[in-house]
Amino acid sequence: MSSISRREFVANSAGLVISFYLPARPGAASGLAAAPPSFVPNAWLRIGTDGIVTLTVDRSEMGQGSQTGLAMILAEELEADWSTIRLGPMPENPAGWSRTMRTGGSNAIRSSWEPLRKAGARAREMLVAAAAQTWNVDRATCRAEKGAVIHVPSGRRLSYGTLVARAAMLPVPKDVALKEPKDFRLLGTRVTRLDTPGKVDGSALFGIDVTVPGMLIASIERSPVLGGRVKRFDPDRAKAMPGVRHVVELEPSSWMGSKGGWAAGCAAGVAVVADTYWQAVEGRRALEIEWDEGDSGTLDSASIRAQLLALAEQPGIVAQTIGDATAALAGAAKRIDAVYDVPFVHHATMEPMNCTAHVRTDGGGCDVWAPTQNQGDAQRVAAEVTGLPNEKVRIHTTLSGGGFGRRLEPDFVSEAVRVSQAVEAPVKVIWTREDDMRNGFYRPTSYNRFSAGLDASGRLIAWTHRIAGTPLRLKFGPLEKGIDDSLVDGAIDLPYAIPNLLVDQATLELAAVPRGPWRSVGVSHNGFVTECFLDEIAAAGGRDPFELRRELLRDKPRHRRTLELAAEKAGWGTPLPAGRARGIALAEWGPTVCVEVAEVSVDADGSVRVPRVVCAVDCGQTVNTGQIEAQMQGGIVFGLSAALYGEITLAHGRVVQGNFDTYPVVRMPEAPAVEVYIVPSSDPQGGAGEPGVPPIAPAVCNAIFAATGKRIRRLPIGKIVST
């Protein structure tokens, strides 16, 4: 038997394969090298002898289109033919990787921009060098274009597929020149998403679609009271139901969060495992369970709000101070005071939580199939449950029917792993809509007390904002200096030129109420309260809301030009049909600036209608303009649903809302026409998944005031009393 080297094997079988390191944070050093057999890299670029370019990325696809955007970045520098681009399956084992597999916070594009560009450019240079060698010509006389290398003087052309064998034998260049943005032919254009065909023809695999040999289905009856436990249960009736194989009690559990500290965990419950989903549900209904409600049985929304109001009466921990707001307020010619409320809200993803797990007792490790945003924590939790080392846990990432931060939590993974381990078979746990609604990780609630002062000329000279809320970061350990980022983000570091400002924060810890990041996190609620209060200041000073913002953004050209573009495209100041009014709001998520103008009408019964929204966004260097538009549109509808209807309430320790009848979302007839305008920018990417959400609630509420003279200071809007 003759032996061949690894390089010869790669050259003759796989084509050109390049591994590249994706750093833990933007700007960190990145490298590129041929992969030894034992090395599992973060991402792979492979060009086959058929010319097909396959990119395997470590970012989840939840409908946001980031995987297509990542492929575009690579294809641009590679000079690939877009029709040859394919996406490979996500890597299965993130153990020991230097970059955590986690998709959230609009991080996919901006964290991979430079590494992917360099990977594409290096592969391109290797292919060009291979062509020059083949023709025995000067490398400088060759260039790459649409999946081929061209010898410019002679016009000869070689496709990438014919060059990969030779290219694979070449050393990987260390330094390569990246293209200038003016030379981009793919980036900044509208490109059809790579995941669309599978979603149209039904071949796309979501978590709920997973099927593996010998798989059973489980449905779990969880404690109806937050933090409750099973006191007693009788499984006999359930076991007698057709198709029911097992009944498994699940104790409440918690896990180590990736940032340290103990996070909230899974609710207590009883799992019914059956041959089919319906058999599992019917068996679950037959269970007889007595619950120990613990201390949470008296918890309700009214008592939580009362505690927040009491907290807001006392000074909090200072989050930001500029000048002397207290003195400026005392000396102001005019003072404005207001309080604003935001409730707990749920993610309400279209695909409820689900997970399939197979824990093998023969030493084969654990396989998990999950629509997760957070492969690192999913693997960590599965390892803790099974006692296996991380490298024995394989996470197979499926498409997700929405995420919005909910699938960052590994609770649904933990449940499936525990049930599979108990019954020694592969098990898919499927949540009902009610399970999903009543066992979420909710956006924190907060109560906000504002004061502002104007001088004799109507100029804003003082701003104070006290936030009393339920923190998010406590689940990851102690707060840094007592400040919770999720409560103050979007309330501090405002872009407006306010000479005297004070923001402080008081926290109410509710251990029984699970809380987690919700799309745009703190800016989602602070964008509402700050932009509505600024509108109140404009009215009190007799100022146009757009003009006041424009004046206060005098030191922020990026924000100002985004504001001006939105106002121009919306026709700010021009007449509207009778009964319709405009409202404007600005919010900033990371480096992305978004301004929205909402046109609103209020019916005689107080129902609010939003027929049109104009959005201007500066998210830095653009990748797929069509996807940016889609993200803004989706964010606006998502945020509008929360503004109009979104509220999770508690009664006797139970979540009241259970389905879309009690937790409505905007339906298609209610959806506004959304116009999106992208500000040309060469700034670094700021992300597009989050920024469309925060401005819509204040823009709508400010428009309601313009139409009716009534202020909305407490969400959801619901119906208002018409004037």
Would you mind describing this structure in some detail?
It is a single chain. This protein is an alpha+beta fold and 723 residues long. The protein is 28% helix and 24% strand. The strands form eight sheets. The chain has a seven-stranded mixed sheet. Strands 2-1-3-4-5 form a five-stranded mixed sheet, sandwiched between helices. A hairpin with a 5-residue loop joins strand 22 and strand 23 (460-469). Helix 2 packs parallel to helix 3, helix 3 packs across helix 4 (160-167) and helix 14 (521-540) runs parallel beside helix 18 (696-708). The longest helix has 28 residues, at 108-135. Mean pLDDT is 90; it is low at 6-13, 21-43 and 258-263.
Jot down its keywords.
globular; alpha+beta; five-stranded mixed sheet
Q: Strand order within the widest sheet?
A: 11-14-9-21-18-19-20
What would you call the structural class? alpha+beta
Strand content: 15-25%
For the terminal residues, how far apart are their CA atoms? 90 Å
Global mean pLDDT:
90
This entry's quaternary arrangement is single chain
Number of strands: 30
Overall geometry:
globular
Supply Rg: 28 Å
Topology:
Layout: H1 6-14, E1 16-20, E2 32-33, E3 43-47, E4 53-56, H2 66-78, E5 85-87, H3 108-135, E6 142-145, E7 148-151, E8 156-159, H4 160-167, H5 196-201, E9 216-222, E10 229-234, H6 236-239, E11 244-250, E12 253-256, E13 262-266, E14 269-274, H7 277-285, E15 288-292, H8 301-312, E16 317-322, H9 325-330, E17 334-342, E18 354-359, E19 366-370, H10 375-386, E20 393-397, H11 411-423, E21 427-430, H12 433-438, E22 446-454, E23 460-469, H13 485-488, E24 501-507, H14 521-540, H15 545-552, H16 557-570, E25 580-589, E26 592-602, E27 608-618, H17 625-644, E28 650-651, E29 654-655, E30 673-678, H18 696-708
Helix pairs in contact: 2-3, 3-4, 10-11, 14-18
